[in-house]
Amino acid sequence: MLILGIDPGSLHTGYGLVEKQGSALTPVDAGRFSCPRDLDLPRRLAHLAARLGELIDRHPPDLAVLETPFHGMNARSLIVLAQARGALLAVVAGRGIEIREYSPAEVKSAVTGNGRADKDQVARMVRLLLSARGEGWASDATDALALAICCAQRLKLDSLAVRAAKPL
Amino acid sequence: MLILGIDPGSLHTGYGLVEKQGSALTPVDAGRFSCPRDLDLPRRLAHLAARLGELIDRHPPDLAVLETPFHGMNARSLIVLAQARGALLAVVAGRGIEIREYSPAEVKSAVTGNGRADKDQVARMVRLLLSARGEGWASDATDALALAICCAQRLKLDSLAVRAAKPL
Lengths: 168, 168
Fold this sequence. Notes:
The structure is a homodimer of 168-residue chains.
Chain A: E1 2-7, E2 12-21, E3 24-34, H1 41-58, E4 63-67, H2 75-94, E5 98-102, H3 104-112, H4 119-129, H5 139-165
Parallel strand pairs in A: 1-4, 4-5
Antiparallel strand pairs in A: 1-2, 2-3
Helix pairs in contact in A: 1-2, 3-5, 4-5
């Protein structure tokens, strides 16, 4: 199962693709889409939507994962981020891909065991969990990979819970 | 010149296409894209983006016009509306169409002469200005047409100002 984590931003949107086979997680692709700073917001949104569309066409995921909106943010940042999120969600949902959402605390907790971990701790644990210590991922990319890892763990817990609930 | 006004909403997005020839304004198409209420937000955004794309392909506008975000709104409504706006902006900008933005007060003032006019006054004046009293437009549609009319008036004022600035 291929899981795509997306960390939206109007200048940089992180993405991370993780292949889940049983308990094994393998990074398939990760990085960020960056917009030229001289583009206005509508053109940045179009740029990000086009890049995400290309990525999905190259690696069609079974699930896409985003953080729930929007934590500890001023109104101006929130408006810009929500517009970027909307442009990206329309691309994912337009291709019929199922979407999951987790809060930042759920993601940090799933990856590090601590719902208040900082970005560096998350990045270190992402590399460890994906056996990919040498990769030069930007923090947008490790944040997106953390979302995919969180989703993979939830799927595993859900399937265990289903098994446990079955009569022997 | 064909001008497309867009009034974003996650359930209903209004649109209004106005043809400007000199001072004459003619309505070309107006209405709203409505989403089935049982769709989740990502699928509503994809639905609206697809409908807007089809409209633009049918009637390619020279300019698209939206209201500046976001006036007198609670955080929850604002987040939903901003995501709808982002999905729609990405469609317009992705097709290379120029975008203008005006505040609600500017639009009301352009259409009725009163920056605090209510929805009914706006709707009445839109019908009058477009010589279209009999049309059964929803208020989302008249709001979108008001945006297109506001834009057309600004273009006219801008061209007059350019002419006035030229030496005799």
